[in-house]
Automatic annotation (TrEMBL), chains A, B:
It is found in: Membrane. SUPFAM superfamilies: SpoIIaa-like (SSF52091). The chain crosses the membrane at residues 21-40, 46-62, 69-89, 95-116, 128-150, 170-191, 212-233, 264-288, 300-318, 338-357, 364-382, 394-424. The gene is sulP. The keyword 4Fe-4S does not apply. Pfam families: STAS, Sulfate_transp. This is Sulfate permease.
Length: 574, 574
């Protein structure tokens, strides 16, 4: 790892200008997002701003992506709420302390993963599991925000609870709130779907049009604040954000409560993994567009530093955001300096803008969240995955249903568990083919697919998988079956062209196979064993003990064990 | 599955005679084992006998091995004790009920595995984990029995506890007990190590000598019972088995306590898996010697039936025993009828012999257990495994240490967890090689190992592993690195000869790779894609969308993408 970032060399006014413009646009996008995701996480609004200051500086110093924009994101905020709501009352000091502790644990886990090079653990989360989780999260978040649009109280984690609570609250719908919420929803949806093309149609340059469209939520906020103030809607019962302390966060450690840490650990682990996976895939996509590289281990460090910064500055868990990073990239950000400048922008916002945000209706923030997260819901992906692979489709469906019905953590664990189970089930049954010699050639092919010449006394079995513990016993069984079905066989040649590894379990199985074959009057041989596998076999006494030979090729094996058969096959024409 | 066993056809007096002799020998071996393993499990002695009657009949009816001898075995008895001792006082009615419930749960789990074809779950338990577990169990059992040899009270599950308790009890050693115990140990050790060769030296046929040696424990029991009676040793404080109820077990369900079931479930799952693995590997070894087959799913059913029978007849969890099955096989057992006849033998024993066993010293049973289980301890295997593979060696060492220090369940779970982690770590980093054309040939080989011709504009990458979620992102990273390092490359050909599967995660990765390469001005292509993989890819829209071609061979790809390079390579001589 290089500690003096190479982007600092050659940093000049032109690059600074590009970074500065990107920072300005991201700041305009991030202020409403910060407020909204803090509300989604059940935290005071300023928490979202605080989590967008120091964490951005920390990531800029330690991360490896040049354009990733970190901060509070929707799914992580949902997971934060899911972890904390059962423990404390949302908005309370204990709740905020626990959110900071969650960020601290997440930071420690990310550092630990970086130190022990455990970034590969994120691969546990297969694409179908993540896709199912993201869709379900989007739905959960959107449904969860409807209470703010309707202006009714409703709590709950899982979908059935949420829907029941909403349904119960429906008669109490607060009309002014609903008007503001629905209006914001319509406006923001129109901005998202049509503003860019309308502006382009009016002759605005596409890049600028795109950036203006991203400022839609900021515009909605401005209008709503003015409206609430002018019509005195707060007095009419419209829930507003309220007083936000003006100024910067004070630095303080979260409460280091050991029992609480234990309770939060599973959620912190999931938040770290999910945040890391999402962040890395955004960062990689963006880096590739400019032929840059990101280093996953450096990303762990960068995200860890960002969460540590959030933990000590009254923040909440953060990670790289998809939409935000794309905006940063497309607005022309060249270096992590853009992130640092965004932090400055948010800090200025926290210092200067907060008094103006008092009248901001929660319904507008809810509308911004709903429009943002509905883009995450992709139920068509489920059908696609199912069509491609039943197993992957099952994992995705289970994750989706699990997250919706049983909660975030249980859903993800179910999906990962099922993926692993199906994966082990699949690798425990490797493809094996009895092969015979193609007439007129030295090649051996599957007897079920090709018309080949088979020896009566020599059975040739090709294994299309590395041999390791999940499938070792399967090989034993398959060989047992084959030998019982062919009493005339005297030699079995295991063709190992597809075997990249033989672990200790498979070695035991090979020994058992050799011994059992022996007592049945059959000799085991190997052919086409790869170099590294052979090196490892030589470290055991298997090669001395199994009594057979290791042939360079299957053809050589047949030449030695049943020359008549190979001669017959060569003489035939294909 | 065939429900009318084929061995019944052609069953005649000759076969019945062979089965009968084997049954007699196994009965003589099983009576002391039943008593001993019941004591080891903390159960009244008759439990071991009862678990050797109906379960044997049930296995004979439903199992697939012709020679497997089921009943109480050492490691399962240890696991039973480990599961029950924290809950109830050994020997109490609740303890016995819980043991029956454990057998019932084990039966249900085995049936469930048979129904859902989940027998492959046993493959989770790699050879190193099982080997580590068995050695540690042997040590734990042996140390745990020393209290009976010394005649001191000592309880504890893990090794440090056991040793501390023994050390504390040492001053209270009961001399007559120690004399009997040590004498039995010496005698049984001599029988095991030397009796067969001594008898053979005296001209006894080796088979008979072997069978006589197996009856050693029965002989030790006889002598000890006579001695205790003659010298009135019970009155001198030698602990004896005591009154064993005469007769057959009464049929009754275990207490169906739901809370207790939940507590026992993990232990029942491990007992089922370990019992199944041990049983199947013995059965397969024996079946292969006569070119017979065993069906793993039928074994699940057979062992399930045996445990169900144990659960309703005041028994304890059972499985196939290694030593016992070998004796059965070598004594000439031909069909499951031998098992059924053994059950009759044990039933007769329970009816007629029990009064005579009152004076049997517990020290003799302990000695029999120690001599039996020390054969399980194989610490040399640890060194061997470590030499063969560091990863497998680590899994074995962790299991061994875990079982000794933290208990059976924790130790096995640690070992399995580590195995899976190392396995996933290994498969998450598949071997990939940049390949070039061998001069004068159409073959492509690793550029690091061979002197090959590389195209400047076409990068050829061979992947030596199926592509699935644990390694999908690794491929993304590797491709990213390669492309950044080679700015002149315009085509990347992924050579898929070693790819047996592309799951949905890997498909997403391929799409991401194609897209990222595209935005970097590089086109992705595939070559040598196997038929089944191609079939699956066709079920997605990847092939339409990725913009590249699928070439039959790597050579064909280079001919199409950089004909100059292939011509140059062909003109060179090797």
């Amino acid at each position: 790892m290089r500690w003096r970032p190479d982007w600092l060399r050659g940093y000049d006014r032109r690059v600074a200008g590009q970074d500065g413009l990107a920072a300005l646009i991201v700041t305009l996008m991030l202020i409403p997002q910060g407020l909204a995701y803090a509300m989604l996480a059940g935290l005071p609004p300023q928490t979202g701003l605080y989590a967008s200051i120091l964490p951005l500086l920390a990531y800029a110093a330690f991360g490896s992506s040049r354009t990733l924009a970190v901060g509070p994101v929707a799914v992580v905020s949902l997971m934060t709420a899911a972890a904390l709501a059962p423990l404390y009352a949302p908005g309370s000091a204990e709740y905020l302390g626990a959110a900071m502790l969650l960020a601290l644990l997440s930071a420690l886990l990310l550092f630990g993963m970086a130190l022990l090079r455990l970034g590969f653990l994120a691969n546990f989360l297969s694409h179908p599991v993540i896709s199912g989780f993201i869709s379900a999260s989007g739905l959960l978040i959107a449904v969860g925000q409807l209470k703010h649009i309707l202006g009714v109280p409703a709590t709950g984690q899982a979908l059935p609870e949420l829907l029941a609570a909403l349904f119960e609250g429906l008669p109490a719908t607060h009309l002014p709130t609903l008007l503001i919420g629905a209006g914001s929803l319509l406006f923001l949806w129109w901005v998202r779907a049509h503003l860019k093309s309308s502006l382009t149609g009016l002759g605005v340059a596409p890049a600028l049009a795109g950036n203006l469209a991203k400022a839609g939520p900021a515009l909605a906020i401005l209008v709503a604040v003015l409206l609430v103030g002018a019509l005195q809607l707060e007095q009419a019962g419209v829930a507003v954000v309220g007083t936000i302390p003006q100024g910067l966060p004070t630095l303080a450690l979260p409460p280091l409560d050991f029992t609480l840490m234990q309770q939060l650990l599973p959620a912190a682990a999931l938040i770290s993994l999910i945040g890391f996976v999402e962040s890395v895939s955004v960062a990689q996509t963006l880096a590739a567009k400019r032929r840059q590289r990101i280093a996953p281990d450096r990303e762990l460090l960068g995200l860890g530093a960002a969460n540590l910064a959030a933990a000590v500055s009254a923040g909440m868990p953060v990670t790289g955001g998809f939409a935000r990073s794309v905006v940063n990239f497309e607005a022309g950000a060249q270096t992590p300096m853009a992130g640092a400048l965004t932090a400055v922008g948010i800090a200025l916002g926290a210092l200067l803008l907060t008094p103006w945000l008092h009248d901001l209706p929660q319904a507008v923030l809810a509308a911004a969240i709903i429009v943002a997260v509905l883009g995450l819901v992709d139920l068509g992906a489920l059908r696609q995955t199912w069509r491609y692979s039943r197993q992957d489709g099952a994992a995705q469906a289970v994750t989706l249903a699990g997250v919706l019905l049983l909660g975030v953590e249980v859903g993800i664990l179910l999906g990962v568990g099922l993926s692993l189970l199906l994966f082990l089930w699949r690798t425990s049954r490797p493809h094996m083919a009895v092969v015979g010699q193609l007439p007129g050639s030295e090649h051996f092919r599957n007897i079920l697919r090709f018309s080949v010449v088979q020896s009566a006394s020599v059975l040739s079995l090709r294994v299309d998988e590395s041999l390791y513990f999940p499938n070792a016993r399967f090989l034993e069984e398959r060989v047992g079956e084959l030998i019982v079905a062919r009493p005339e066989v005297r030699h079995l040649v295991l063709m190992c062209s597809g075997v990249n590894l033989i672990d200790a379990s498979a070695l035991e199985s090979l020994e058992a196979i050799a011994e059992r074959l022996h007592s049945a009057g059959v000799q085991l041989h190997l052919s086409e064993v790869k170099g590294p596998v052979m090196d490892q076999l030589k470290r055991s006494d298997f090669l001395q003990r199994f009594g057979g030979e290791v042939f360079t090729s299957q053809y050589e094996a047949l030449c030695a064990l049943d020359p008549d058969s190979t001669r017959r096959a060569l003489q035939q024409t294909a």
